[in-house]
Write a structure and sequence with these properties.
Number of helices: 14
Oligomer: single chain
Radius of gyration: 43 Å
Strand content: 15-25%
Length: 516
């Protein structure tokens, strides 16, 4: 006995008898051909006669080049040459000529006397299933790649570890999809810190209740900018009703969010404009009366002082009255300043838009600045040649004046400041940008967060209405621009205002109905 228990004197055979092998071959569904060394059919077993390309009498004794279609011959020839060289070879091919296209696997085995045995199996059903699966996957891939959002599957863990992320995430956020698949980055890691816990709470609650989730939150993109997104998805459950994965889609709604904010601001600005116009009108009339009477009292005080002569007691009383009148006059002047701001805001908001040369407009504004307010040469002006914009001239001048006033007051309040103010004009990303920078004390974060609120000011009572930046934002956004504030304590303040560059196809006054 050998080590494996077989009798060494008895030759090992795959079947108990040749008859058994023939019976097995007889029931095989495959086509089996024996070829001569030169490629002629010698014998065959037609286990699947319905797969024969032609009748048996047209096959035996002929070369496979004479029997099979040209495309199949071209597939078989290299494989036949390898088999003739003693190598077992497999080749797959499509065969026409039936009621439908068929797909075969052909295995070529070299046998004795240089002959070649071919085992051919019909794989049409498997091929069609595979093809349909590939086509379905391609349709899904095309659908995913064309959805204007990020499709994902992730684990239900603390980091929302990604299993699949569509390539759109790089277009949306600037992060390659591989960053998430290789765990260099996670969904939790790019969620705004203030939104992470609320989002996780809402998703887990939806999963526990067995319903889809819909959340809105903020994401930090590759450039550190905040993007507003909405996310829809649902849990994928495996056995034992445990949620294993989350499938969903993330849509970038930053532009929609900004549009809503702009509409909200515009509606507020319209309401404030109407209120401003009404308040200015209603206050101005009694204010004019008060001003006239204060002027009259001031004149009469002078007359009375001349009549009094050298009476110290009366002179002291008259001085006190004159001081009170001056304070009243100061209060009236402050109210007049507020009215002027309200009127300027209303006038600028209603100003007619036109094609403007911003460079010329800035030079004109600075040239006409009050010498008592702006010392000659105290402003560093750097103006590039830029495209024109479509905006209200009154509005742009008002914005520039307000920003200059703020910068002047900032450097005046800073003892260690050298009084540097810079005005820059340049083009960036098809936008015309104006920057006003000062090296004043800068703002604390809580102050900067409220800088655009109406009537918010850090100045002492009587020294500011708190409308400057509020008016600027309203005017800029009403002209399709945007305004940004960059400031930090001890680092000064920089305000950037950007307007879309003029595009003749997209801007201009509306044509009259009669124009043709």
């Amino acid at each position: 006995m050998s080590k494996n228990g077989s009798n060494p004197t008895t030759p090992e055979r795959p079947f108990a008898s040749i008859a058994t092998a023939e019976q097995i071959v007889a029931v095989m569904p495959d086509l089996i051909f024996e070829f001569s060394p030169d490629g002629r059919y010698i014998a065959m077993h037609a286990g699947g006669e319905d797969n024969l390309y032609c009748s048996v009498d047209k096959i035996l004794g002929r070369h496979f080049r004479e029997v099979l279609p040209g495309p199949v011959v071209r597939e078989l020839e290299p494989a036949f040459e390898k088999a003739a060289a003693g190598k077992v070879t497999t080749v797959s091919y499509l065969m026409p000529g039936f009621d439908r296209l068929k797909y075969f696997d052909c295995r070529l085995l070299p046998i004795e006397s240089g002959h070649i045995l071919a085992l051919i199996r019909d794989m049409t059903d498997s091929w069609r299933d595979k093809t349909e699966l590939e086509q379905s996957e391609e349709r899904y891939r095309t659908l995913v790649n064309n959805i204007p959002g990020v499709v994902y599957r992730c684990h239900l863990d603390a980091e929302w570890t990604a299993i699949f992320v569509s390539p759109e995430i790089e277009q949306m956020l600037g992060f390659p999809a591989d960053d998430f698949l290789t765990r260099r980055r996670s969904f939790a890691g790019i969620t705004h810190p203030e939104d992470h816990e609320p989002v996780r709470r809402d998703v887990l609650q939806a999963v526990e209740q067995g319903r889809p989730y819909h959340v809105s939150y903020r994401i930090i993109d590759a450039e550190g900018q905040v993007r507003h997104v909405i996310e829809r998805g649902q849990a994928i459950y495996a056995e034992f009703d445990d949620a294993n994965y989350l499938d969903g889609i993330i849509l970038d709604v930053t532009d929609i969010h900004r549009m809503r904010q702009r509409l909200l601001v515009n509606s507020k600005m319209a309401a404030v404009g109407n209120l401003a116009a009404g308040v200015a009108h209603e206050i101005n009339n009694p204010l004019a009366i008060a001003m006239a009477n204060v002027e009259y009292v001031s004149e009469e005080l002078g007359t009375v002082a001349d009549l009094v002569g050298d009476d110290p007691a009366l002179e002291g009383a008259l001085a006190d009255v004159a001081l009170a009148v001056d304070k009243i006059q100061g209060g009236i002047d402050r109210v007049r300043g507020i009215i002027d701001d309200l009127r300027a805001f209303t006038d600028a908001a209603e100003g007619r838009a036109d094609r403007l040369d911003v460079r010329r407009l800035i030079q004109w504004t600075i040239h006409r600045a009050d010498a008592r307010t702006i010392a000659p040469g105290s402003i560093d002006v750097r103006l590039d040649d830029v495209p024109s914009i479509w905006a209200s001239e009154v509005g742009v001048v008002q914005v520039l004046w307000n920003l200059m006033d703020n910068a002047i007051e900032a450097v005046a309040d800073e003892a260690e400041s050298d009084g540097a103010i810079r005005i820059s004009l340049f083009e960036e990303d098809e936008q015309v940008c104006l920057e006003v920078t000062d090296d004043g004390p800068g703002m604390e974060p809580d102050v900067a967060a409220r800088a655009f609120e109406p009537f918010f000011t850090t100045k002492p009572v009587g020294q500011g209405a708190g409308l400057g930046l509020f008016v600027c934002r309203g005017l800029v956004e009403s002209m399709d621009g945007n305004i940004e504030l960059h400031t930090a304590p001890g680092e000064g303040t920089r305000v950037r205002v950007c307007f879309p560059a003029f595009n003749p196809a997209g801007y201009g006054p509306p044509r009259d109905a009669d124009d043709t």
